[in-house]
Amino acid sequence: MLGGIEEQIVAIKKAKDMGLYVITCDNRPDNPGHKYADAYYNVSITNKDAVLQLAKELQVDAVVCYSLEAGVEAAAYAQQQLGKPTSPYESVRILSNKILFRKFLKDNGFCVPKVYTLEDVKNPDVCIEYPVVVKPADLWGSRGFSRVDKAEELQAAIDFAMECSRFGEIIIEQFIEPMGAPIEGDGFSVNGKFTAHAWSDCIADPDAPNSTTPTMFCYPSKTPTPLLKRLDAEVQRLLELLNMQTNGYNIEVRITADGSIYLMEVAPRNGGNAHPLIVSMATGNDLIEATILAALGEDCSHIADTPCKGYWCSCILHSNTSGIFQGVEFDKDFQEKNLVSCDLYLKQGDDVLPYSGTNCSVGIVIARFDRREDMKVDYKLLIDKKN
Q1: Ranges in the chain, pLDDT < 50
Q2: Is the whole-model pTM more than 0.85?
Q3: Cα 64 from chain centroid?
Q4: In sequence order, what DSSP letters do the residues of 181-244 get, joined into one string?
């Protein structure tokens, strides 16, 4: 299992519950997930050759990277080199890099935002049409992301994205205004067929430092069924072109007023923000177990397209100011009727950062409701604000 961050603990525990011997590896021994594994090795998950070498030495049955983008390419590379089940490494690499992904979409007739290069920014003859978004090409979770509405803001956004990027790659592209809420969901393909998915509506906090970054995901999406069927077909076409096999995905989509479907991200890994957990509870499709089974070459034909039962949401607990974390309180009525789980990433006394991306999360809440109109997560963060 590549990585050991907080959100990966659920997958490590799942593998243990399946009776598997679990080895974790990354170059961060203090990551909390390692204590749940049977063994840990200090090997960087961004070094695909080092991961492959370790897998050979340990004679593992499978290399899995759950949720964490940093190890997705290495997992596919190791599986392919070892002759184990995987989607093609080159396809995973395309889906894992926004620059490669945008080029692939354009070359194959998908809707794609207009992309600007750093040379375009420096060229006075190139007219950049604002707003644009600037983000690292090799990260997900809105880290390093900025919306830029005027030229004076562009360089600061470029510098911010470059600081966050793992490999110094950024992308500058047209901001796509969605019709209604942006859509996000986790899905799964079995032998290349997009067999299961659950789409949510993404809600942002307008008062957050980064007001375009979602803080709440509401299931199921209110997007009309005909549009969702077209969306499913576009994802299926993409997977066929890339020869994807049995694989989990976290997908971000924007559908514009004219019905154009933009696949903003089709990350070849399970999502964060508790998406796989909600999918499991709401549809019965255990995508965490399926990801592990797929890497082992086991049958995943039980994963099927199943509608959500009830109304669900995951809410990112966050603060819009910095401070020291003391705790969180929920409205009593919400806690008794709707709260399913609350996982905190901070402990009392930890620093709280203003929410600019998922790396600034305090924790994640899952809630269930009988009616969509009742969806509201009522909580209060207890923090000592910094001056």
Answers
A1: none
A2: yes
A3: 16
A4: S-EEEEEEEETTEEEEEEEEEEEE-TTSSSTTSEEEEEES--S-HHHHHHHHHHHHHHHHHTT-
The answer to whether the CB of 172 falls within 8 A of the CB of 132 is: yes
Q: What is the pLDDT of residue 141?
A: 63
- pLDDT score of 387: 56
User: What percent helix, strand, coil does the chain show, rounded to 5?
Assistant: 35, 25, 40
Neighbours of 218 (CB within 10 A): 20
The structural domains of the chain, ordered by start, are 6-84 (3.40.50.20), 114-174 (3.30.1490.20), 183-385 (3.30.470.20)
What three-state secondary structure class fits 364?
strand
Asked if 317 and 377 count as a contact pair (C-beta separation under 8 A), the reply is: no
* Phi, psi values for residue 228, rounded to 5°: -65, -35
